[in-house]
Design the sequence.
């Protein structure tokens, strides 16, 4: 006995058959609606009943799409690793020096330069070093390991981009060129910073930590009333909110982002370890740790006018 089928059901079956002939797969939900490509890709449902887990997934997907849209107007100098934090090696470095640099930086790729970082020649991948020095196995590996080490033999090409390039465009270029590291160079040829494909992907999905990443150091720690031990990279606006103090006039709020930047502006140089920099309002910034290029840690002593007045009266 033939099965009774409505015209609507028959039309839907014909469309499905046509889709199968084209190789399409467009599964339907329980209400007979076709799900879109993104929904099918992520395994989402268009049903009216949405559980808590699915709601959370939808919120995460919206956040991802928002991050992707933000990259359309985001410049690479907004996300680059600053020059002072770049771990790089000189092209004539020995195998021991290169190994120490990989160990100190905990990175899989390191920029290679000639004399100064402003004359980059490429980058070196730790995998190439391992394969060239015996990890490949066999007689060929032993022969390679017996040769004098030359860093120039395993240098790979890297991208050089301007600070104004959009981060989304750089991500596309890295995919096309299959090069996962770029130096950010200003109009005079000086290196401003470095961007890796991991930095770009993290703008979309958030921080990606692996087994070699160490836990982030706390931004600051309160040692006593009005006294803080702080990382120089701590966000100035966050510290001001925590300590309930205003350390910058409004017209300079956009010029300085970190506590270290504030101290640098006050001293107009990189102060030495142990030096105390005074703020016009009476606050003191003691440099706990620094090198010739940057400030690392500070001890902040905030001036309390009421307490000072009380102590003076006593």
Sequence:
């Amino acid at each position: 006995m033939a099965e009774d089928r409505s015209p609507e059901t028959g039309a839907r079956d014909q469309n499905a058959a046509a889709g199968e002939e084209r190789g399409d797969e467009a599964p339907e939900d329980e209400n007979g609606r076709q799900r879109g490509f993104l929904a099918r890709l992520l395994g989402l449902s268009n049903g009216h009943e949405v559980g808590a887990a699915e709601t959370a997934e939808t919120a995460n997907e919206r956040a991802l799409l928002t991050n992707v849209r933000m990259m359309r107007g985001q410049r690479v100098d907004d996300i680059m690793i600053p020059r002072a934090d770049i771990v790089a090696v000189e092209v004539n470095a020995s195998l021991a020096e290169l190994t120490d640099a990989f160990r100190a930086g905990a990175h899989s790729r390191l920029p290679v330069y000639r004399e100064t970082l402003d004359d980059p020649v490429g980058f070196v991948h730790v995998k190439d070093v391992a394969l060239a020095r015996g990890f490949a196995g066999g007689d060929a590996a032993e022969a390679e390991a017996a040769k004098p080490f030359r860093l120039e033999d395993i240098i790979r090409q890297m991208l050089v981009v301007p600070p104004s390039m959009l981060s989304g465009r750089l991500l596309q270029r890295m995919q096309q060129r299959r090069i996962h590291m770029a130096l950010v160079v200003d109009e005079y040829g000086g290196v401003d910073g470095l961007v890796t494909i991991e930095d770009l992907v993290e703008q979309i999905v958030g921080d990606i930590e692996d087994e070699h990443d160490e836990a982030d150091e706390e931004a600051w720690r309160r040692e006593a009333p009005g006294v803080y031990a702080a990382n120089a990279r701590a966000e100035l606006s966050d510290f001001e909110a925590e300590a309930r103090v205003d350390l910058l006039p409004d017209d300079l709020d956009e010029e300085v982002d970190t506590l270290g930047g504030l101290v640098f502006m006050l001293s107009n140089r990189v102060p030495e370890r142990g030096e105390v920099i005074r703020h016009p309002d009476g606050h003191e910034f003691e440099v706990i740790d620094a090198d010739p290029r940057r400030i690392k840690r500070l001890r902040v002593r905030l001036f309390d006018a009421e307490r000072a007045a009380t102590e003076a009266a006593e």
